[in-house]
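step 4 of 6: structure.
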Amino acid sequence: MREAAVEVRDVVVRYGDVVAVDGVSLTVPRGGILALLGNNGAGKTSLLQVCEGFRRPDAGSARVLGRDPVADHDDLMPRLGIMLQSGGVYPWATAGDILRLFASFAARPLDTDMLLDRLGLRKFAKTTFRRLSGGEQQRLSLAVALVGRPELVFLDEPTAGMDVGARQTTWELVESLRADGVSVLLTTHLLDEAESLADHVVIMDNGVVAATGTPAELTAAAGIDLLQVRAEPALPVAGLAARLDVKVTEDTPGEYAIAGSLDTEAIAAVLGWFAAAGAQVTAVNTRRRTLEDVYLALTAGAAR
Amino acid sequence: MSTDAGTFTPAPGRAPMRAILRSQIRMELLLTARRGEAVVLAMGVPLLVLLGAGLTRATNVPGDDRLGFVVPGVLALTVMSTAFTGQAITTGYERGYGVLKRLGASPLTRPGLLFSKTAAILCLVAVQVLVLALVGVAVGWRPELSELLPAIGVTVLATAAYCGLALLIASVLRPETTTAAATLIYVLMLAAGGIMFAAPDLGTAGHFLLPLAAHAEALRDTLTNGAAVPASIWLSLTLWAAVALTAAARKFRWE
């Protein structure tokens, strides 16, 4: 069996007395897309730098495509596509110059015009880097990361500074990478980005892993947290709230909102109570927690 | 907008090193050409010195052959200006822009980058030295060409030494500090390096302390007097090049 694309074990990164990454482990399987989700300062970029071989971890280990990212830097570089968080380009070079330069470093590069088209940069081929907008610079950096047809791509906040259209283009591109079997490790602070792109999400907070799983697992673990029931108005719901550990409100007459941690049994009990009360239930709605709720709950908890 | 399936199917690999170096050297030269005004400025001061000190009696120079003293000194000054001052400032800012880090995350290796930078500087130095030498000839300098090869040899050594020093200070200092330090050293050397007037006479020790004075003297010995380069100058410039390049390779930082 081939080794994982990225294998990080108990990595610690310190800047003087500040611990930026405090014992993080994660695995990106071959062909998988893993999103590191977290606020600014959560330690995402530091962890990425360890994987890119720019920084030696203070403890723990990282293996990238089965190799040591620092010791085997030169051997690994042709196999990786790296998108830095910002800059990294000669301000006086044009978008076309830059992409062709990096293409010329690769044995079997992608067609640079195709890539410029694909990222909507064709009309900027003769524009110098410093005159591109932030979002255009980001897209060029992405093109530079992909032009060598890498096996594994590191994307640090790939859509930062992009408008909605550019973000959509970038997401479609990441989907194509998945379809073509490229492994991806990306960082983001955007929940919808993690939810829609990643097979696997690792939520980082203050340098540690706060939660990990597929987007579905992360939200399912939190369960259903709101049940809306429509029935006759003014039912004696205080009894329901007392029997189950839930909060019941009737803001609109006949519209009951039952909030709490609602597993299957609890939902059965709630509906059972309405039946026992002789109510005519005309509508039932559930609301599941989104990744955003999970994330906010986790990071708020850690901040305390 | 869609791309055919399989477009991004991994097919990684490094291009032949020769092709990588050729592209990188071309990029370095292209960027230099884009900042053409910087190249002209880098030659402006040496040109002023050449015409000012070479054609007027503004400074006292040893001996009767004014141009024979000043022109080789100006050539040495140009090498320093481009290979040390210009190179240090450019590299400092490239680090600031994250360019070096980006190149570090590519199949171009560290030796590949150092080699490309030095090769591009050598090309630039060759052009500038040729232009200034021709100006010198136009105003009456009559160089001896019998010792041309040793003159080129010491110039390559000096270029290598300056490149090493430039990359070293650009690695250790912040971009703004690098600019200030490189400019200050340039001005000090212009004043005390034995270009417009004789350097402080420190005997052979001077060859080892001031690479600019050593290089200028070697160019005078060869191009003006048609004599051999003193062994102490060969040794000094070789040592400077070896120490500077080794230190640069060890201290070089991508970030």
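step 5 of 6: annotate
 - DSSP finds ten helices and no strands in chain B.
 - Residues 19 and 25 of chain B are 10 Å apart (CA to CA).
step 6 of 6: archive
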